[in-house]
Design a protein that fits this description.
Blueprint (H helix, E strand, L loop, with lengths): L4 E5 L17 E3 L19 E2 L1 H11 L3 H8 E5 L6 E5 L11 E2 L2 E2 L7 H5 L2 E8 L6 E6 L13 E3 H7 L2 H21 L8 H12 L1 H9 L1 H6 L4 H9 L1 H17 L10 H23 L20
Helix pairs in contact: 1-2, 5-10, 6-10, 9-10
Bound molecules: iron/sulfur cluster (2 copies).
């Protein structure tokens, strides 16, 4: 990789990416098929990062909520020290294989994650010094166990992306990749995010069903003045909800204000808190002290979780 590449982000954080950047028109020699001797080898020892869109596709495939999907099939990881979290597929209990792997191959093939589709290519989002827009490039991952590189087929990366259904995944994942790139490139200028804003980032990016509940809540309406048409759209269209989540994160973490905040947001929050405190005091007076966590939506009620 050339020296003046400032930031890169790849879905293969632990993989031996060959360090040369490739354009979409670059040819690669590769073919993967069921009859190949290494079939399933790559799914037996996984390190698969998920995008928010990957999670949407997989939770629909499995017919479960994003909250359940995160609990059963993923594990969080730190993308950078004290920074934002990513999500990886969690392998089988006491093993390294993917939970979706079967003898016949991937059991969620039509909805397999971005990283699985790209393999053995890695998508790199980057910004060079003195450039203000992100660019996407590719690199080739060559691992000894993967015999697909010895197959007699040459295909350009662009054609391979089409074959693997990646344009749709790339479009849906772009807002998230830009967020991560921005966070990594802004470094100390935005300060270390509080635990609360990191929790918010995690929920808004990965737990979309819970984020939808938050947007529908009175606590959200107390703070943000969303017009009715936009509110209806984001509550009913999951892709719009995801894009809205990225907007709200940019507002909260980078102060890029695009969602109007109510003038009386602080007073409303305080009134709601007082009301809740009064109810809790009344319950405590009747049944004694109550142990436990605050109400679920309290973690996300302020316009800026760092405040
Ligand atoms: S999701 Fe499918 S393709 Fe990806 S690692 Fe798991 S079994 Fe393999
Ligand atoms: S050719 Fe590579 S990608 Fe295909 S099954 Fe073998 S190890 Fe996996």
């Amino acid at each position: 990789m050339s020296d003046n590449v400032e930031i890169s982000d790849t879905p293969f954080p632990q993989s031996p990416v060959v360090p040369s950047l490739l354009e979409g028109g670059a040819p690669i020699q590769f073919r993967c098929h069921k009859a190949i001797a290494c079939f399933n080898a790559c799914c037996k020892n996984i390190d698969i990062s998920l995008t928010p869109y990957d999670i949407v596709r997989l939770k629909h495939r499995l017919g479960i909520t994003s909250t359940d999907f995160l609990t059963r099939y993923t594990m969080p990881y730190e993308m950078e020290k004290n920074g934002i979290a990513g999500v990886k597929l969690r392998p089988v209990e006491n093993g390294t294989a993917c939970q979706f792997m079967t003898e016949e191959g991937c059991s969620v093939y039509a909805d397999r994650p971005t990283a699985c589709r790209y393999y053995p290519v890695a998508l790199l989002s980057m910004r060079r010094q003195n450039e203000y827009t992100e660019r996407e490039a590719y690199a080739l991952v060559e691992e000894a166990h993967c015999l697909g590189h010895q197959e007699a087929r040459t295909i350009t990366i662009d054609a391979y992306r089409q074959e693997q259904g990646l344009p749709e995944y790339d479009d849906a994942g772009r807002g998230w990749r830009q967020l991560i790139l921005k966070k990594k490139s802004s470094g100390p200028t935005v300060g270390t995010p509080s635990k609360r804003s990191l929790q918010f980032f995690f929920m808004a990016c990965y737990d979309l069903d819970r984020f939808r509940e938050f947007v529908a809540s009175d606590a959200f309406a107390d703070v943000y003045a969303l017009d009715d048409a936009l509110r209806t759209t984001v509550l009913n269209d999951e892709m719009q909800l995801m894009e809205f989540a990225f907007r709200l994160i940019r507002q909260i973490m980078f102060n890029e204000v695009t969602i109007p905040v109510r003038d009386d947001a602080l007073q409303k929050r305080q009134a709601r808190k007082q009301e809740r405190d009064a109810v809790m005091a009344e319950i405590a007076a009747k049944v004694g002290p109550i142990e436990g966590t605050p109400l679920e939506d309290e973690r996300y009620t302020c316009s800026n979780p760092d405040s």
